[in-house]
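hiii so my PI (J.) wants the whole complex modelled not just the main chain, which honestly fair. so below is everything: two entries, each one labled with what it is. i double checked the lines twice but i was tired so who knows lol
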Amino acid sequence: MSSIDTTVKPSGPPPENKGSIGPGVIDVGLRFLLFATALVSVIVMVTSKQTKLFPVPMVPGLSIAIVAKFNQSPAFIYFVVALSVACLYSVISGVLSIFVLMKPGGNSTKLQFHFVILDVLLFGIVAAAMGAAGGVGYIGFRGNSHTQWKKVCNDFGSFCSHFAASIFLSLISSITLLLLVWLSVYALSKKISK
Amino acid sequence: MSSIDTTVKPSGPPPENKGSIGPGVIDVGLRFLLFATALVSVIVMVTSKQTKLFPVPMVPGLSIAIVAKFNQSPAFIYFVVALSVACLYSVISGVLSIFVLMKPGGNSTKLQFHFVILDVLLFGIVAAAMGAAGGVGYIGFRGNSHTQWKKVCNDFGSFCSHFAASIFLSLISSITLLLLVWLSVYALSKKISK
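here's the output for the full assembly
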C-alpha cells in the first residue's frame, strides 16, 4: 500500500513543508475553477437563443421570425453535454479532494491515481467538444466560400457572442484539466523521488 | 533521485516480474501505433483532393471544374498540423523509449514524468483537432438546414470518404495517447506502492 507523505515535519525547512501541503490546496482550487468555468460556459451556451425578424421578399410589411439556438447543431449539443459532465465531475472530485485535505493523514495515492485517470479522460472529452464547437462556430463567424456556407454571425450577433464566450470558457476548463493532470503527475513523481 | 525498479529479480514470482517489464514494451508498442495512425491519417487527409466537373446552367456542353481540398477549411488545416506534430512526437518519444528499454537499468522515472507531461498536452491537441475536423466534417456530410449549409458529400464522395477515414484514424491516435498517459500514471503509482 502507499505511504502517506504529507505529514507536517516541524524539523523540516519551511519551503519543503510548504511544497508538501501545496498540491492538495491547488488541486481543490483548480477543481473549483473547473466547476465555475464549465457551469458558466454551459449557462452561456444554453441561454444563447436569439430570435430575429426577417422581411419576406415581395410581400411588404410581412416578416418571418428565425430562431438561432444551440441545439440546432450536433456539435453544440455535444459541447453542452461534455461541459455539463465536466461540471458534475468537478463537484464530485472537488468534494472528495476537500475530504482528503481535511483528513489528518493528507493525500492518498490511490485516490490521486483514480483522479488522474478520470481527469485525463475528461480533458480529452472537453478538448474534443471545444474543438467541435470551435470548428462549427468558426464557420458561423467567417463562413466558407468553397462550400458556399454563409456566415450567420452578421445576422445573429448576440447568439454568436454567446457562443464565443462559451468556447473561451471551455478553453479555460480544458487548461484547468490539463493543469490538474500535470499537478497530479508531479505529485506522484515527487512521492517516488522522496 | 529516482530508484530504478525494472531490474529482473530471479527469485521473484513470474507474474510480478512480467508486470515490471511489461509497461515499457507496451509503451513502445503504443508509440508505434500512434506513429502509424497519425502518419496514415495525415497522408489520407492530404491526398483527399477531388476535382469534379459541374455543367454550367443555360450553357450546354460547358462545365466548370470544382476542387475539394483539405486546406479549404481551417479546421482541416489545424487537423493536419496537429496530427503531424503527433507523428513527429511519436517518433522522438518512441526512439527515446526504446533507448530506455535497451538500457540495462530499464525505466527512468524522470523521463517517464516528462513523457506524461507531453503526452497529456498532445492528447488535448489531437482530441481538439479530431473534434474540430469531426464537427466540420459532419456539416459536410449531413448539412445544416437551420443555417442553410448544404451537404457537400453527395457531390464529393471520394473526398468525404478520405476525411472520414482520416478522422477515424485520429480517433485511434487519441485513444492511443490516452492509453499512453494511463499506462505511465499506472507505472508511476505502482512505483510508489512498492
